[in-house]
Amino acid sequence: MPFRLGRGEPVMKPDALVKRGSAPSERVLLVFTRYSFRVARRVLSGVERVRIPAPHWGALRGSLMGVSVCVVGLYFGAPASVMTLEMLIAAGARYFVVVGEAGAIHPALKIGDILLPSWGLREEGTSYHYAPADHVPRPSRDLLARLEENLRRLRGRRRIKVAVGGVWSTDAPFRETRDKVREYARRGILGVDSVDVRRRVQGCGSRSGVGHIR
After folding, report:
1. What is the DSSP string of 139-164?
2. How far apart are CA 115 and CA 161, in angstroms?
3. What is the Cα–Cα distance from 9 to 113, expressed in whole angstroms?
4. How far apart are alpha carbons 200 and 30 in whole angstroms?
5. What is the DSSP string of 59-81?
6. Which of 29, 146, 180, 187 has the fewest CB atoms within 10 Å, i.e. the most exposed one?
7. What domains appear along the chain, each with residue ranges and CATH number?
């Protein structure tokens, strides 16, 4: 008879490692590069360095339009990112926006375009500890719509292109084969990245929106 392990009580829980209410803000912007971190620092007002009860390479808190926001620099890879995310949620963070860089696998995307993932194809391993194999991760519809609306209003030296579509997550960059790229692009997947934090956010009742820069 087939059986499945992993449904029992975890040996170690994040709330045993952090104090509830110790998150610097309920609203968190998660980034992976120092460039994104510096941009966030310039945009926010009243910026101060903060400590967070989770692995990270940088953290600050500031205000955007009167709303407190914490910016956290994540280490690359789903295991490290999800560990930090779990601990932030246990500490009281509730709303997350993830900004990262992704590779384009569809000719519609060019360097500098912004990709808002509306669904994900999971090929990394971490998310399978949080959701069944047939689960399709999706961000909050409300947050996704707000992100898209506000990004389309932006103007710079050139018109910013915002694309909405699927994203492929993998932890094996050297196994991104050409046949996969062709097939996934045909299915409507626009980009590829190495982290999938969407499923973990949904599992905690928190809300997430995700953006990638090509």
Report:
1. --HHHHHHHHHHHHH-BSSSBPPEEE
2. 9
3. 43
4. 14
5. EEEEEETTEEEEEEEPPSSHHHH
6. 187
7. 15-93 (no CATH), 99-204 (3.40.50.1580)
Q: Distance (Å, rounded) from C-alpha 131 to C-alpha 176?
A: 23
Residue 191's SS3 state is: strand
| Residue entry with tokens 């909405």 | 164
Distance in angstroms (rounded) separating the CA atoms of residues 106 and 152: 20
Q: Which of 134, 129, 100 is nearest to 117 (CA)?
A: 100
User: How far is CA 172 from its chain centroid?
Assistant: 18
pTM over 0.70: yes
CA distance readout (Å), 129 to 125, 196, 197: 8, 12, 12
Residue 1 has what pLDDT?
44
| Statement: residue 205 has pLDDT above 60 | no
Looking at the DSSP bridge assignments, the partners of residue 167 are 120, 191
User: Contact at 8 Å (CB) between 30 and 16?
Assistant: no
22 pLDDT higher than 80: yes
- The tens digit of pLDDT for each residue in 157-201 reads 557 788 999 999 998 889 999 999 999 999 999 999 876 554 444
Which amino acid, one-letter code, is at 173?
P
